Structure formats: structure tokens, C-alpha cells
TrEMBL record:
CDD domains: SRPBCC_3 (cd07820). This is Cell division protein. It comes from Paenibacillus protaetiae. Keywords: Cell cycle, Cell division. The keyword Cell cycle applies. InterPro entries: Polyketide_cyclase/dehydratase, START-like_dom_sf. It holds the Pfam family Polyketide_cyc2. GO terms for biological process: cell division.
Amino acid sequence: MVKIETGIWIDAPVEVCFDLARDIGVHTQTTWPFTKERAIAGVTSGMIGDGETVTFQATHFGVRQKLTSLVSEYRRPYVFVDSMQRGAFKSLRHEHYFEPSGSGTRLRDVLYLEAPLGPLGWLAERLVLRTYMRRFLEYRNRGLKQLAEQRIAPQRR
């Protein structure tokens, strides 16, 4: 199992950041375009909440995959956790933390993932998946930052 942590500061209130992060449309809009990620089951639009599931379909490493996640922990506007129920990994848990900081919000992601296939999966985690998933999260968070700050900009004028 590997643990990946990322963080970004967003010049927007914590509630705005939290709600954008759990918005299914925003999620698919802020992921890498080449993955063609889309929600196909469960909550497929709007904001996902406590106890709800979503199934995403996307292409990673040239393979179309499905991943179903359950929002297993939810404390608005400070934290939500989604846990993989079905998918390509042996396990995946994504913790989203939102901390008010000055006039904005510190967003911190902690992702735990475990690949299948025993020793081969262990190697894949360390040689490929750690970097790939870190970049995936960082790309998404930059998109989230841009959307949140654009949403708030007209209110600050």
C-alpha cells in the first residue's frame, strides 16, 4: 500500500471548495482530458453526499476501467472520504481535507492505494502508480482552484 499526500491553497471560502470538490460534474471537468472520465452510475450529476455512491468510467494506461466509490465519511465543510467499493485496485481510500486559512482554504488530499497481484502490484505501486496518481490529484486540484477562484472573483470586486 502506498500513501500519497498533496495540498494546494485556494483563495476561496471553505464551503465553496468543499462543494466544488464533491460535485460530480466538476470532478469529470477537472480530470485529465485523455482519460475521458464520466459518471455512469449512482450519483451521476450534482453533489455527492454521505453514504452515496458513484461509478466512474475512465481510460487509464490504455484500458477502460470502472471504479465505484462510496462516500464513507462526511463532515461538511471540512472532510469527506471516498472508499473504493469495486475497481481495478485491491483497495483505494481518498481523504479530502478542507482547512480555512486566512481568506482562503487549504485543500489536502491523502490517498491510500493498494494494487492487486501481490509482489507485482507492490512494484507497480512504487514504480508507476505513486507518481501517476500524485500527478492526477495535482492536476485535478489546480482545476478546482481555478474554478473556485473564478467563482469568487466577481463577489470580491
